[in-house]
TrEMBL record:
Main location: membrane
Entry similarity comment: Belongs to the SecY/SEC61-alpha family.
TM helices/strands, residue ranges: 72-96, 116-136, 156-178, 190-211, 217-235, 272-292, 312-334, 370-392
Compartments reported by the entry: Cell membrane; Membrane
Purpose: The central subunit of the protein translocation channel SecYEG. Consists of two halves formed by TMs 1-5 and 6-10. These two domains form a lateral gate at the front which open onto the bilayer between TMs 2 and 7, and are clamped together by SecE at the back. The channel is closed by both a pore ring composed of hydrophobic SecY resides and a short helix (helix 2A) on the extracellular side of the membrane which forms a plug. The plug probably moves laterally to allow the channel to open. The ring and the pore may move independently.
PROSITE patterns the UniProt entry points to: SECY_1 (PS00755), SECY_2 (PS00756)
Source superkingdom: Bacteria
SUPFAM superfamilies with a match to the protein in the record: Preprotein translocase SecY subunit (SSF103491)
Name of this protein: Protein translocase subunit SecY
Assembly, per entry: Component of the Sec protein translocase complex. Heterotrimer consisting of SecY, SecE and SecG subunits. The heterotrimers can form oligomers, although 1 heterotrimer is thought to be able to translocate proteins. Interacts with the ribosome. Interacts with SecDF, and other proteins may be involved. Interacts with SecA.
InterPro entries recorded: SecY, SecY/SEC61-alpha, SecY_CS, SecY_dom_sf
Length: 433
């Protein structure tokens, strides 16, 4: 392993890519601690350290920003506007034919969709920054703690405008850094930045468990975490391979086809998106309640049932929403009709299945059956932090489970694969033997 890492850094172009990626990660983490202009930084630190702190609806955003949201830094919005914009553009392919046509055009169409995603990211950045400033002024960001009601030094309209512009520019800079990592570094840039933000929260989470629960619970958490990592790696690598045979055909004087391949359908075809969707939907009631009358009946009901993960109603809804969005996202991203048409166009067929409509029905059948264990797996992983919240009184950013574990393992596996493939091109030996 150490020898493989040494070979990676001895290869000039691969070394440059790794060093560039590390440099972008360092800059990203530095930006997470630079306070935004017009914010009372010393008071923010007191609010972050307050024992009454309840992240509420902002827990997911704070996780993806590596804690920069509650620090009110220039990168407070993190990568979430870009993630949301990417998901929206992907979903719009279903309802807007123009977007679907661009997706099928190849590189030029993808470039156009990427441009739309950038514009939408900036728009969502402005919206999110405005909402964040509003929650800062009302004190809702820190759970309406009295000393955190207004953390702005300058409450004039131009001071607020500067903060909104700074936070939006921070989002644009993060987006640019992610694209630069993708082009000049190793791995997918956005995934690497999300990975960095999530991993940065691990030391504090481990420290909190060790200090509050003792060495025994800490050791149990590590063992359970190791078992969960093994489970996630096993499921993420699992796939159903549907064999495909291509018939021989003559094109001019040359013979084409006659090859065998397969269609890989992963058990977790939807990735982490269903967990993000379910979390976002459940955060909406709490977010709305923070702007209502604290004494109103509907606000009290939401605060009691839908803001903390230790209530049974919250757990059941989270479990069911994760399963629903797993099926929903797979149905959008994998089109059996399109796959069957492409196979028929190029003379491909599944052995024992006729081309055309029967192939589409067979793919839909296999996809629905394999999505069920995948959705149950996602729901189980998503419930782990909530179970930990009940059993050992851990916070909602429990290190092993939910979005954290899926991101860390998924991005780690993909990055190692890319480094491994580049090493094999030069040394005929990969990173891992």
């Amino acid at each position: 392993m150490l020898g493989a890492i040494g070979r990676a850094f001895k290869t000039p172009d691969l070394r440059n890519k790794l060093l560039f990626t590390l440099a972008m990660i360092v800059l990203y983490r530095m930006g997470s601690y630079i306070p935004a202009p017009g914010v009372d930084y010393s008071q923010v630190q007191l609010c972050v350290a307050a024992p009454q702190l309840n992240q509420g609806a902002f827990g997911l955003i704070n996780l993806f920003s590596g804690g920069a949201l509650l620090q009110l830094s220039i990168f407070a919005l993190g990568i979430m506007p870009y993630i949301t914009a990417s998901i929206i553009v992907q979903l719009l392919r279903v309802v807007i034919p123009r977007f679907e046509a661009l997706h099928k055009e190849g590189a030029s169409g993808q470039a156009k969709l990427t441009q739309y995603t950038r514009y939408l990211t900036i728009g969502l950045g402005i919206l999110n920054a405005t909402t964040l400033v509003s929650t800062i002024r009302t004190g809702a960001l820190f759970g309406n703690v009295e000393q955190c009601n207004n953390l702005l030094v300058n409450d004039a309209w131009w001071g607020i405008l500067i903060i909104v512009i700074t936070l939006t520019a921070g989002t644009g800079l993060i987006m640019w850094m992610g694209e630069q990592i993708t082009e000049r570094g190793v791995g997918n840039g956005m995934s690497i930045l999300i990975f960095t933000a999530v991993v940065s929260a691990f030391p504090s989470a481990f420290g909190a468990i060790f200090q509050t629960q003792g060495i025994d619970i800490f050791a149990i958490v590590l063992l359970v975490g190791l078992a969960l990592v093994v489970l996630v790696v096993f499921v993420e690598q699992s796939q159903r391979r549907i064999p495909v045979q291509y018939a021989k055909r003559m094109v001019g004087r040359r013979m084409f086809g006659g090859t065998s391949t397969y269609i890989p359908i992963k058990v977790n075809q939807a990735g982490i998106i269903p967990v993000i969707f379910a979390s976002s939907v459940l955060y909406l009631p709490g977010l709305i309640a923070q702007f209502g009358d604290p004494e109103a009946g509907w606000v009290l009901w939401i605060n009691e049932h839908l803001t903390t993960g230790d209530h049974w109603m919250y757990m059941v809804l989270y479990f069911l929403l994760t399963i629903f969005f797993a099926y929903f996202y797979v149905a959008i991203t994998f089109n059996p009709e399109e796959v069957a048409d492409n196979m028929k166009k190029y003379g491909g067929f599944i052995p024992g299945i006729r081309a055309g409509r029967p192939t589409e029905q067979y793919l839909s059948f296999v996809l629905s059956r394999i999505t069920f264990p995948g959705s149950m797996y996602l729901a189980f992983i998503a419930m782990i932090p909530l179970i930990a919240l009940v059993l050992i009184d851990a916070n909602q950013n429990f290190p092993f489970g939910g979005t954290s574990l899926l991101i860390v393992v998924g991005v780690g596996l993909e990055t190692v694969k890319q480094i491994d493939s580049q090493l094999q091109q030069r040394h005929y030996e990969g990173l891992l033997r």
